[in-house]
Amino acid sequence: MTITAVDVLDVRFPTSSGLDGSDAMNPDPDYSAAYVVLHADDGHEGHGFTFTIGRGNDICCAAIETLSEHVIGTDVTDPYDLGELYRALTHDSQIRWLGPEKGVMHLAAAGLINAAWDLVARRAGLPLWKYLSGLDPDQIVDSVDWRYLTDALTPGEALDILRAAEDGKAERVAEIEQRGYPAYTTSPGWLGYDDEKVVRLARQAVADGYTQIKLKVGADLEDDRRRFAAARAAVGPGVRIAVDANQRWDVNQAVAWVSALSEFDPWWIEEPTSPDDILGHAEIRRRLAPIKVATGEHVHNRVMFKQLLQAGSIDFLQLDAARVAGVNENLAILLLAKKFGVPVCPHAGGVGLCELVCHLSMFDYTSVSGTMDDRVIEYVDHLHEHFTAPAVIKNGRYAAPTAPGFSAEMKRESLLQFAYPHGPEWRNRA
């Protein structure tokens, strides 16, 4: 199966108009996707994207087009081919200089690599989580780039993890198909929402079966205390409430601010400081215990995740489906998290991230960690209507995707309507 063409589209949604997605560092996001379609010579397509919040989405599209020369003419038939594609996209000797393995070029690689996995899973007639679950441990290990990781996790150790998980895998696959995977929701907690809306949505979330919600914090301490108190009163003591500062604070400020919220029993503090500050996260975690620390949506690559784990910096690892270079790198991150005993609770929301990450968590359960203890996938209730196989939540849990592929395909009418800058949605706003 050879890739013959690559289409790239700049797709943006005007979410800033309702302050959906607003937080202390990103007050006016327009959720966007640098969207990719791979065309194969057997007629199959692969769909993928990388997520941005508006301005700069065109830069990601240009980067994808630049990397496409590594994709056209490539055979993409099995996990070995996908491992070779990953290395081609991330090891280009000149483009690598722009990272290495971080930033816009890495986001672009994610869009292409995720589309390639979508293509292979579609051809196999399986949803990606089930396709991955059916691979041999050796195939998973061969798809990972082990450079820079072996001081923390060797390929042999990874094989041992995967082989140990073979026992009971069929039962776990059946459980995922029957019961799905636990979710939590950020929908009540956007910083731009007034108190009444926060309370109403928090109560609705609990009524819908969620046992955890999340609030955005970090702009004004007294506002945060008031909103948190209102949310806690609305849901009661038995519901976990996580808080997310979106990188707002220095280390000492993070400790002081979260300490001032501690009476409301925060479950975790997410992105309390710069995502690059591995030792800062470790210090915050030490000083705030037993309040937990979570991060990951802006962690550039598997090497930074390795160091966060080695330094004992996090209680929860929040991988992102499109921040690192796609499925291959996230397989490495899941294996690292298992080695260090840290639960994976993926970042989602955005455009289509809910659709993608549930595949990774479900594979983690069937084939890597073998547990759902303290594990939840973020869910945000918007933009799902634009996808051909949208994420489905039932009683606070992600239902297992059944359509072949990675659930990345957007409806053609949505691609046309929200194409930037010439789609009807954006022409009408000009």
What can you see in these coordinates?
The protein has 16 helices and twelve strands. It is of the alpha/beta class. The chain has a domain of about 240 residues: Alpha-Beta Barrel (TIM Barrel), CATH 3.20.20. The chain has a five-stranded parallel β-sheet with strand order 5-6-7-8-9. Helix 12 links the parallel strand 8 and strand 9. Its cofactor is Mg(2+). GO terms for molecular function: L-fuconate dehydratase activity; magnesium ion binding.
Q: How would the blueprint of this fold be written?
A:
Elements: E1 3-12, E2 32-40, E3 45-52, H1 57-67, H2 79-90, H3 103-124, H4 128-133, H5 137-142, H6 155-164, H7 169-179, E4 181-185, H8 195-207, E5 212-216, H9 221-235, E6 240-244, H10 251-261, E7 266-270, H11 278-288, E8 292-295, H12 302-310, E9 316-317, H13 326-340, H14 353-367, E10 377-379, E11 393-394, E12 397-398, H15 412-417, H16 424-427
Parallel strand pairs: 4-10, 5-6, 6-7, 7-8, 8-9
Antiparallel strand pairs: 1-2, 2-3, 4-12, 11-12
Helix pairs in contact: 1-3, 2-3, 7-14, 8-9, 10-11, 12-13
Number of strands: 12
Q: How would you describe the shape?
A: globular
Overall mean confidence score, pLDDT? 96
Main beta-sheet annotation: 5 strands, parallel
Task: Round the Cα radius of gyration to an integer and report it.
Answer: 20 Å
Which descriptors would you attach to this protein?
about 425 residues, alpha/beta, TIM Barrel, five-stranded parallel sheet, four-stranded mixed sheet, 16 helices, 12 strands, about 15% strand, globular, magnesium ion binding, Mandel_Rmase/mucon_lact_enz_CS, L-fuconate dehydratase, L-fuconate_dehydratase
